[in-house]
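General statements about sequence and structure are easier to judge against a single worked case. When preparing material for the folding task, we compiled for one chain both its residues and its backbone structure tokens. The amino acid sequence and the backbone structure tokens for this protein are reproduced below:
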Amino acid sequence: MAEFMKKFIVFKEDDGSISIIKPIEGCGLNLEQIAQKDVPGGKRYKIVDAEDLPTDRYFRDAWDMDDSEFTDGTGATDHGN
């Protein structure tokens, strides 16, 4: 269960901003299953360590990742979009 405390799922929104998903311990799913369920369909995602996230929340909106960095999978759910 310790993996949930140190990992986050990130993906790029249509407007170019980075969204961050914090998995919840004890939900019964592993990180990949959570990403498949919660990342919008067709969006590529990356599972990152907590220390890789920006520490200053004031500038978090300025955080950018190259599309080539989203290498861990693609969201499977459409979420009605």
Summary: The chain is about 15% helix and 20% strand. Residues 3-71 form one domain. The first helix runs from residue 3 to 6.
